[in-house]
Amino acid sequence: MQSAGRLYYVDALRVFAFALLIVYHSSVAFFPDMNWLLKSTEGSETLSLVMKHPRAWRLALLFFVSGMGTWFVFRSSGGLGFLKERFLRLFVPLIFAMCVIVVPQVWYERIWEDGYEGSLPAFWLTRYFTEGKYPEGNFTWAHMWFVGYLVVMCFVCYPVFRLLGHPAMRPVADWFEKKASGDAIYLFFLLPLVLNLALTPFFPRQTNALVNDGAWFATWASWFGLGFLVAKHHAAVIGAIVARRHVSLGLSLTCAAYLYVYSWTDAGRLFIGDYDQMTPLFKILLFALAWSMILALVGYFALYFNRSSTTLAWLNRKIFPLYIVHQTVVVAALFYVLPLDAGMWTKFVLVLAATVVGSLLFAILADRLPSALKPLVGLVDRAGRAPAADKPVGAKA
Question: Rounded distance, CA 220 to CA 218, Å?
Answer without folding.
Answer: 6
